[in-house]
Amino acid sequence: xxxxxxxxxxxxxxMEEYEIGLSYTIMKMEQQNTNSKEGVEVVQQVPFExxxxxxxxxxxxxxxxxxxxxxxxxxxxxxSALTVHEESWCAFPKSRTVIKCPLFSKCSLTIDTVxxxxxxxxxxxxxLSSEQLAAREVEIIDIASMSRDYWSKVIGAPxxxxxxxxxxxxxxxxxxxxxxxxxxxxxxxxxxxxxxxPIWGLGERLEDCVIAGERALFLACNRLCFAxxxxxxxxxxxxxxxxxxxxxMLLKKTLKKAGSKHEGKKKTLKDEIAAVGSCT
Length: 280
Hints:
Structural class: alpha+beta
Shape: globular
Strand content: 25-35%
Oligomer: single chain
Largest sheet: 8 strands, mixed
């Protein structure tokens, strides 16, 4: 059975700020989850133009994150079969992401995203049919909430408490009860997850597992986007695109490293990118 779940994540920032902040957050999370044994491989990044989405950037990635795969799934598949392939067409404020896994070739997972300058009150931003609306389940995610489910532990959910956090550069926060109704600026990212796993005896369990994983990822990513606001606030789109190019090089370099460990002062994403840039 096809599952349709819409997640609405309200953010205490403007649309323009979110475009920058989300890109920075994704880059930093990928860098933190990549080492000599596993991680994120950026396969391709090129401009695209589409009648529905408009002009934007196409990105193809491969996720070699076998350590984060549930144990029950590892029992009947090789590591290579569990590599996740992602294709994303991003034309802010809209995007579409298609995720595939060789082991589950019959399954389909799409994530359609629409960003709006509101607090999650838009009811059909994805222009769903009456049948789809009847099947859709909606959940509003509060980034100030803490989650302790299985996937949050696997992803490494951020421990920052946004109910006490206050940005030094923007003076936004803390996010107290009712903040989504009173916060300015404010915007919402509407993520429509459609999952179909037509596998007898396993399909429903797999669909529930994947959707729960996506929810945990959405929460962690957007929590960090606000928690790291003082790192990316004031950056331009041009600066972000250059960081993406340098991050691509950094990830490829890290995945190719021998398994040696380095100790010393912990580096920021900008420090790591600067080091790679000096070698080019």
